[in-house]
Amino acid sequence: MEFVSNDFLDSMFQRRLQKELMSLIREPPPGVYVDGQSAEQNLTQWIVHMEGAKGTLYEGEQFQLQFKFSSKYPFDSPEVTFIGGNIPVHPHVYSNGHICLSILTEDWSPALSVQSVCLSIVSMLSSCKEKKRPPDNMFYVKTCNKNPKKTKWWYHGKYIIDYDHIYFVCSRERFQTCPVH
Fold first, then answer.
1. Among 77, 148, 170, 177, which one is least packed by beta carbons within 10 Å?
2. Higher pLDDT, 78 or 9
């Protein structure tokens, strides 16, 4: 039986990130750009800049996304959050920058990329009809882990409470669970 060495996995991880970074620099989605020099200095954490698309509720607004990559990338999704002073007011974006988007958790696939995540977020913002926070924003921000990947998102249509967890709505479609303390 052959085992893959950690060195091989580390080099595969670095090659994949370098390839995606070059792709994002050379062919960014509309309104998206990354500072390649700072990303090259730290391949495991990128700051991606995003502009609100023309003709949308976010036209003219500037946002920053932070991408953090574990050594298991691309088999493990990146941790993606909005950061900075302008976090979009959106039914799928909490005021702490956490994003309720299935491809960032259970629908992640190694076939996806930073570009596809950026396109999904641009699309999510562009299709917004009303600027508002998720209904459970205040509770979520006060009680959940700083790492959105430690949140378990559920897809149901109502509130559920049990003895170990509180489940609450994320934009009428998604639920999130945090351990009760």
1. 177
2. 78
Which residues are catalytically annotated? Answer: 100
Please give the domain boundaries of the chain with CATH numbers for all domains: 12-150 (3.10.110.10)
pTM attached to this predicted model: 0.80
Phi, psi of 131 (to 5 degrees): -80, 110
Distance in angstroms (rounded) separating the CA atoms of residues 10 and 70: 11
pLDDT tens for each residue of 72-101: 999 999 999 999 999 999 999 999 999 989
Contacts of 130 (CB under 8 A, 6+ apart): 57, 91
Q: Rounded to 5 degrees, what angle do the CA atoms 114, 139, 68 make?
A: 20
* Residue ranges of E strands in the chain: 32-34, 45-51, 62-68, 79-83, 152-155, 160-161, 165-170, 174-179
CA 132 – CA 140 distance, rounded (Å): 15
Is the bond into 74 cis (omega within 30 degrees of 0)?
A: yes
Range with the poorest average pLDDT among 9-18, 100-109, 129-138: 9-18
SS3 category, 99: strand
- Furthest C-alpha separation in the chain: 57
